[in-house]
Amino acid sequence: LARRRALAGYPVVIGSRSAESAAKAAEALKDLLREKGVQGAVSGAENVEAAKVAEIVVLTVPFSQHAGALAALRDAVQGKLVLDTTAPLVPPRVGTVQLPASGSAAVSTQAPLGEGVSVVSALQTVAADKLQALEPMEGDVLVCGNQRESCDRVIELARATGLRGLYAGPLANSAASEALTSVLITINRQFKCQAGIKVVGFR
To answer: Taking the CA of residue 36 as centre, how many other CA atoms within 13 Å lie in the half-sphere pointing to its CB?
Structure first.
């Protein structure tokens, strides 16, 4: 995500639990931008510091680290848009839908952060390998959130990533896209592919 958004001209701050790891990732991305002849603002910082300076905070952690990440970031993300890409995958049965008691990971994100944070859920159905390849992609991204304006901003980010974003209703509807992650994992294992989703029947 950082690669594609930096290449699209967005300033990017990469966060990590280790400031050193974040700085290393930022340098690698700067090298890629130079290779592509693109001017971009890229930096790295420890997660909380990155969240403090970011306008939009993108949460990309395994479900097992989800609660801990939210607790650490709560104060730093107040008044901001948090884009949560988390899919509630529980090893070893990641190909089986296992939604949390709250109904979805995204709903579990909103509760501890409070109403001062606009949480939007998206991108669970996009394979990380396809994003990293930097080749043109096709497919749709279901965007769920309780504030339509925030969802529209994420739809624009999806477009910059090379995908079509579609508003799919309130945050609770994220349960559908989160569950689809396990379905797609099962399909991808069976056919050895990197399938995504595409909504048809309209323009």
So the answer is: 16
